[in-house]
Amino acid sequence: MIAVVGSGLVGRGWAIVFARAGCTVRLWDADPEQATRAIRGIEAELDGLAELGLAGDGPPPEVLGRISVASTLDAALDGAAHVQECTPEILETKQAVFAQLDAAAAQDTVLASSTSGIRASLFSESLTGRARCLVAHPLNPPHLIPLVELVPAPWTDPAVVDRTRALMEGVGQATVTLKKEVPGFVVNRLQGALLHEAFRLVQDDVADVADVDAAVASGLGLRWSFMGPFETIDLNAPGGIADYVARYGELYLDLARDGGPPRPWDPHLARALETDRRKQLPASRLGERARWRDRRLALLAAHKLRHASDHDI
Amino acid sequence: MIAVVGSGLVGRGWAIVFARAGCTVRLWDADPEQATRAIRGIEAELDGLAELGLAGDGPPPEVLGRISVASTLDAALDGAAHVQECTPEILETKQAVFAQLDAAAAQDTVLASSTSGIRASLFSESLTGRARCLVAHPLNPPHLIPLVELVPAPWTDPAVVDRTRALMEGVGQATVTLKKEVPGFVVNRLQGALLHEAFRLVQDDVADVADVDAAVASGLGLRWSFMGPFETIDLNAPGGIADYVARYGELYLDLARDGGPPRPWDPHLARALETDRRKQLPASRLGERARWRDRRLALLAAHKLRHASDHDI
Question: What is this model's ipTM?
Answer without folding.
Answer: 0.97
